[in-house]
Design brief:
Elements: H1 9-22, E1 31-39, E2 42-45, E3 49-50, E4 53-61, E5 67-73, E6 83-84, E7 87-88, E8 94-102, E9 107-114, E10 117-122, E11 134-139
Parallel strand pairs: 1-4, 3-11
Antiparallel strand pairs: 1-2, 4-9, 5-8, 5-10, 6-7, 10-11
Length: 140
């Protein structure tokens, strides 16, 4: 039969406590929440900028027709984005993501880790960009 050396429980507890004290806590990433409101024909944000990192867009369609909320990383101002027909060609740009078509009174959320730079936010339903449903967002 094998014999085991016993270690007092207090010594084990002390070792675990010291290990826990010496470990530095992991920094949790900061999340910025921005509220977006869609109406005919405007996009209103609760903030026009955020620090680089996790940004959550909580979007409400307060309008009377369907809208969407598309985020594009670009140096071009939202009002100057080139049109292909009556909408922006998202495939030709750096599309970050979107809150897809949302019915009136509907809501949606999109969260992304955003790098510093300029972002254009648009409702890319045909005709809506042309009517001014665009805004700019900066990440510092």
């Amino acid at each position: 039969m094998k014999s085991f050396r016993t270690i007092p429980i207090a010594a084990v507890g002390l070792a675990l406590a010291l290990a826990a004290c010496s470990a530095s806590p992991a920094a949790s990433p900061t999340k910025t929440t921005v509220t977006g409101t869609l109406t005919e024909y405007a996009i209103t944000l609760s903030a026009t900028s955020a620090s680089a990192g996790i940004v959550e867009f909580d979007v409400t369609n307060a309008g009377t027709i369907i809208h969407e909320f598309v985020i594009l990383k670009t140096d071009t101002l939202a009002k100057d984005l080139p049109l292909s027909g009556d909408s922006v060609d998202e495939d030709a740009l750096d599309a970050i993501g979107e809150v897809a078509e949302t019915d009136p009174s509907g809501t949606g959320t999109f969260t992304a880790t955003l790098a510093a730079g300029h972002y254009a936010i648009i409702c890319n339903i045909p005709g809506h960009v042309m009517q001014g449903m665009v805004t700019d967002f900066t990440v510092n």
